[in-house]
Amino acid sequence: MTSISYPPLAIIEEGIPNAKRSRRGRRTTKIRGVRAGTWVYIGLGVVALSAIFPYYWSFLIGSGTAATINDPNMSWIPGGNFIANALAVVNDPAVNFWLALWNSIYSSALIAASVVIFSTLAGWAFAKLRFRGSKWLLTFVVATMAVPMQLGVVPLYILFADLGWTGTIGAVIVPALTSAFGVFWMTQYLGQTVPDELIEASRMDGASMIRTFWTVGVVAARPAAAMLFLFTFVGAWNNFFWPFIVLDRQSPTLPVALALLQSNHFVDYSIVLAGVLLATIPLILLFIVAGKQLVSGIMAGAVKG
Amino acid sequence: MTVNANRTQTPPASPPPPPERTRQVKPARHRRSNLDLKLSPYLYISPFFILFAVVGIFPIVFTAVISFQEWDLVRNTGTFVGFEQYAWILSQPQFWVALRNTFSIFLLSTVPLLIMAILIAAMLDRNIRAKTFWRMSTLLPFVMAPVAVALIFSNMFGDSHGLVNTLLANIGLGPIPWHTDPFWSHVAIATMVNFRWTGYNALILLAAMQAVPREYYEAATVDGANALRQFWSITLPSLKSTLIFVIITSTIGGLQIFDEPRMYDFAGEGGAAQQWLTITLYLYNIGWGEFNFGRAAALAWILFIIILIIGLINLAITRRLVRDEGGRGVTAPRRRKGIQR
Prior knowledge:
The structure holds two protein chains of two kinds. By secondary structure, chain A is mostly helical. Chain A has a single domain (10-32, 95-268, 278-304), classed as MetI-like fold, CATH 1.10.3720.10. Chain A is 70% helix and 0% strand. Chain A has helices at residues 10-13, 19-29, 38-62, 82-90, 97-128, 134-144, 153-163, 170-173, 180-193, 196-204, 209-238, 241-246, 254-265, 269-304. Chain A is globular, with a radius of gyration of 24 Å. The two termini of chain A are 22 Å apart. By secondary structure, chain B is mostly helical. Chain B has a domain at 92-325: MetI-like fold (Orthogonal Bundle). Chain B has 14 helices and two strands; from the N terminus they run ααββαααααααααααα. In chain B, strands 1-2 form a two-stranded antiparallel ribbon. In chain B, strand 1 (69-72) and strand 2 (77-80) form a beta hairpin. The longest helix of chain B is centred in the N-terminal third of the chain and has 40 residues, at 28-67. The two termini of chain B are 27 Å apart. The chains are: A mainly alpha, B mainly alpha. Chains A and B meet through helix 1, helix 2, helix 3, helix 5 and helix 6 of A and helix 1, helix 2, helix 4, helix 5 and helix 6 of B.
């Protein structure tokens, strides 16, 4: 039950015979065809520009004044008001920006860590240990991946209202602590990367199950765990539907704070878009650091399965 | 999804002790080891399943219960009313408008998204310099929160002073009613979805394209097929199952759309005449605008059933298409252990 999206896994693999062989073959034989022509770079340039443009546009508006947007001769050069607008955002008591930032960082990190831990444990059991009912249980977990978040929000709200948790960040964290997708992802990965012989060897040497898990499973799972952490983090950070329902201005996350900002300042869009940029900076930083991993995560998920 | 069917069916290389052996008298160390072997799997999965049962399964079941009740917020209990809530939802013209809008936005986003994603993937698949840079720039919109995207785009699609209408005016076209007209509001919202998801899907398709053996292209070149023909006859057929995956995920996601229509104007109720009211937005308005939980729960189940029906239709089409694929040649035995050193 999640609104977070992840790269696809095994589904695609079925359609790609020889996926692995051909990739390897291509790298070694260097048959890569002719160098791409100028038009390819022009096309990709247009794509890159349109990816960046909305950020630039928000800076353009966010560095102006309330009147900028209505100015028919609006300049394409940013104005000098960004700092003032940004201060208006962070100083708005109704938006609670700093708390929202902290809530987003803390809840996303906690959710991602918890999903990784639970998924690695369960994925290891499903992929490498034999036990009664494993096939049935895994099918069940995979089936729940199709269930939309909307199906759970009413009882969750009633439950958290009962506990007095509405308006607290805990109400956002707890329902997201597990992920059916995470279990599926780790099961797939561990099933394919850890040879059974390795586990048997470890058992032969007298290692207990937990020791085998620790020395073989966890070590092998690290790359997949890192990907899972990244995607869960981004997904939790951007999640809006449930946090918007259960949180309020006392303790919002960044997307909820943006919604509050919009309803507060819809007459002055320069402040709203300055806030949008501020709220996006952390994820841009993350993208600079880990964007390459995100790219290869999506692509590896698609091919490796 | 053939998750671990293979493994459970193959006889293990070195079988675990068969059940009857446990009856034999064994040294304590062996018995402990056996217990370890039997119990550990359940210990590993139980943290996940306990939590999952509470926050994942219980709410789904309880939503079904609430949907048959008139929920009393004060007493925090419900009274059974049968299918009344479902009947109420289905009798609302707003529901049908929301259904129409949801499908309209979904189609307007999925079709252009697929075409653009294939084109971008085809460009990235060429022999280009600075591959990582171009791939990352394609993915950049993906990390932006849908709420942020919606705020920026609803500004650009402003009716009177928006960027798009200003540009249109510059080339002599009349302003488009981006908010008042249902169709154009759907186009604007679909644009937000496309902005965020095109690059992501392009990378998925790129991965599938790179898996096509290059020999196919060489053979086609030798046979005199031009680039367009090669793309049409080799690349596209090889993408079939990936495309199906992309379509299914964007269907499940697209039918749940909430963030973008919620943020499209400051009132967030889907427009004065429900121009861009979607099902999930309607659910929110019923549940947390009117605080009618029985109706909201019924609508949640209706949404789920719609998603299931569309999913089954998708699956039926998928089956047919995959069967068509039989003649495409090479089929490799499925790998069970990925990396072998």
